[in-house]
Amino acid sequence: MGGIAWGTHFVMTGADSYFRKLNNVWAAIREAFGLRLGTSIRPGIAPLWRGLALVAVLWGLTACGTATLQASTEYQTVTPSADGIGRVYLGREIAQTMGHQGAGWLDRPSRALQERPQIAIAALDLSPTDIVADIGAGTGYFARRIAPLVPQGKVLAVDIQPEMLAMLQAELEAKGIENVELVLGQPDRPNLPPGSIDLALMVDAYHEFANPREVMEGVVAALKPGGRVVLAEYKAENPLVMIKRLHKMSVAQVRREMAQVGLDWVKTDDSLPEQHLLFFQKSA
């Protein structure tokens, strides 16, 4: 995927293509807002429109300028993007995994206000006896908050990084939480017993799975009949969500990938400020 690289989000096929796309997008913006953009609008409003116009330009270049990947059900290998691993599944390059060195970001104080995780947890509609698997649990930000809601059930916190699980274990001991079990997963399987869980939750994690099809086949096998899968993924359709491109997913892409393992789409909840909350179900 050669050509001009602009930042980490834009890959062009050449300078002429870049400027042609830029001119086309800008012309469309001028037509939409008037030929005297920035001069025919009141001075206090003009900077806002210019900012929106810039966002539109960037979004147009992101959508139109990135090399098209084949939507194959077989894994493909490409030259890795800045934040990718060079492995493509159904037209999506898989993102690099966030290492345990960045664990502090998961528990940042601003997360409650920025992402509203309490809304996401309420939307899960949990029963006290539910067995919940938090896949890609990290430091257990969600596992620790779900545990009190399933007092007769439990949370299986699955992660492939032993360091993450060690941090979670320390938090569980400090807070006296006893119904969270740690599970060391593998890059191609979650290591969960068949028919053992009511719900699999993946928060900002699925897009980093190096073997998404195999992991999800393991998740589906672990679900009880009628069991649910819920994914929270940053909204790829929204350019104002300031997350790296490969760490966002569109609704269409998530649905496409879940269909490959036989999951039925139930609904998409967009009440969160930055993330899609997508619900799927295993056939009863």
User: β content, as a range?
Assistant: 15-25%
As for the CATH topology of the largest domain, it is Rossmann fold
- The average pLDDT value, as a whole number, equals 82
CATH homolog superfamily of the largest domain: Vaccinia Virus protein VP39
Largest sheet: 8 strands, mixed
**Are there runs of 5+ residues with pLDDT below 50, and where?**
1-43, 55-67
User: What does the overall shape look like?
Assistant: globular
CATH architectural designation of the largest domain: 3-Layer(aba) Sandwich
Through-space gap between termini = 44 Å
Find the count of extended strands (DSSP E, 2+ residues): 13
The helix content is 25-40%
CATH class descriptor of the largest domain: Alpha Beta
- Name the helix and strand elements from N-terminus to C-terminus, one letter apiece: EEHHEEEHHHEHEHEEHEEHEE
Helix tally equals 9
Rg on CA atoms, Å: 21 Å
Q: Helix/strand-derived class?
A: alpha/beta
Q: How many domains, in number, for the residues? A: 2
Topology:
Layout: E1 5-6, E2 10-11, H1 15-33, H2 46-65, E3 76-77, E4 84-89, E5 92-95, H3 103-106, H4 111-115, H5 117-123, E6 131-135, H6 141-146, E7 154-159, H7 162-175, E8 180-184, E9 197-203, H8 212-222, E10 223-235, E11 248-249, H9 251-259, E12 264-269, E13 275-281
Parallel strand pairs: 6-7, 6-9, 7-8, 9-10, 10-11
Antiparallel strand pairs: 1-2, 3-4, 4-5, 10-13, 12-13
Helix pairs in contact: 1-2
